[in-house]
Amino acid sequence: MKRKKILKFAVLGMVLGVGSGLVIQNQQVHAKTDVLQHKKVKSNGVDDAVYRQASASELAQMVRDGKVTSQQLIKHAVSQIKAENPQLNAVISLRESAALKESAAMKDTGQPFYGVPILIKGLGQQLDGESNTRGLKDLKDNKATETSDYVKKLQSMGFVIIGQTNFPELGLVNITDSKLNGVAHNPWRLSRNTGGSSGGAVASVAADFVPMATGNDAGGSLRIPASFTGVIGLKPTQGAITGDSTVPSTVNFADARKISDLQTYFKGMQSSEHPELIKDAPADLKQLKIAYSTKSPVGTKVSKDAVKAVQQSVKFLRAQGYTVVKKDAPVDGKKLMKMYYTESTPTGTDANKMIKEKTGKNMQFKDVSPMTWALYQADKKQTKQSEKFVTTEMTKVSQQMTDFHKTYPIYLTPTTATPAPKNNDPAYLPKYVKQLKHIQNLNHKEQIQLIYDAWLHGLSKTPFTQLANVSGEPALSLPTYVTKQGLPLGVQFEADKGQDQLLLQLGKEFQDHDQLHFLDSYQAGK
């Protein structure tokens, strides 16, 4: 197992503070209201109400039926983004002219998403000629020199890329904020964060900019913002998707409002190299026993709302005829997270290499996040023995979950332990900042412990998602709950490797029975 393939661009679990006011493109402004305000835009031949409600598949059919053109959809989406994105800072770049040219040249060969506009995450999904900064200030002018296999594949399915979405530096945190791109604001409550690291993508779906947006997930990056902003997010089986490694690392996929879109997308994005990783859903899901837990795997507090969200889903499942029992996963969560952080240290070294190639100098503490710095310093003291030990232990976790699923094929938990954090929630307690700055003075064991301690403030909000990444299993977040304060919360279903379609089928049952809550329907009182 190669170190630099492991948990790269991981979501490790902290919350960055941004001071007072709201940050839009790194400028301090104060909003008159704390909820996304929809702006009326020129129709461009598109019925806005229909566009906001349609699935990606339905939009493609409208193009085929001649009810609307792909160019009209692109212009409408871009107009909407230009009008509303200043409230969110979810989209960091647009490519309208290029998208219109690509759309005009596209031939209908039966693509499932023919002519539909989509936004891609600005990290880890390269598009030739477009921004490729990794969220680092020193790389602010970097452009991709090639298009990744994943992006080529989604283009072959008929999508037209209209821009890139916001993400945190290196994708290292469970919120979306960086020195380069600023904060991505939650459409449900602008003073709250979207979550991360695919926060810009998920906010774009929640705000109805596009019916689907791509992201990636190494520790919860698709599922955490899905919970915080009320959309559907799937982290696929490791290696099941085109371009993804089969060892624990980043997986690419998308968030959406319709399960049917994710089902179609999953089938189209499957890797031809690993067909053994794709299994059909059982004919009768109700034969499968479901385990559930509301206990934080790292011993931190879980909010009453997160517990209620799971209990509500348990009640629904039992009413549908499922057997659901209370049972915790057989994994030591604290030990798992320390392994997770240990395997993530190469991310810091990789960042320094990119910075040095660009500037001729090593990274400076003041120019990167404290945790990027900490991982860079900790990786210098990483040993082969430590690498081997962690790899062995992570393999054990995977086997533990495989054995667990023999009895409990589906595992239900909260996706996040709390609703979305406020944008002024501190990254970590101030006492840790100075310690992280001087982390090079510690031995490796002490460094990992400091990283764990410093991240615990943020991890306590999202302790449930990392297990699926370490084990390589699929996990699905569904927006099933809204708090009395009007904030969404998701529940997470996890299954054995290869059972992605099982999870999507289960998600469809929730959607078919009106168990999912999205921003527009919530605002309409539905």
UniProtKB/TrEMBL annotation:
- Any one Gene Ontology cellular component term annotated for this protein: endomembrane system
Recorded GO MF terms: transferase activity
Q: Does the keyword Signal apply?
A: yes
Q: Where is the signal peptide?
A: 1-31
**One Pfam family it belongs to:** Amidase
Tell me which UniProt keywords the record has, alphabetically. Answer: Signal, Transferase
Q: What PANTHER family has UniProt attached to this entry?
A: FATTY-ACID AMIDE HYDROLASE, FATTY-ACID AMIDE HYDROLASE 2
User: Know the name of this protein?
Assistant: Asp-tRNAAsn/Glu-tRNAGln amidotransferase A subunit
Q: Which organism is it from?
A: Weissella bombi
Ranked from the top, the taxonomy reads:
Bacteria, Bacillati, Bacillota, Bacilli, Lactobacillales
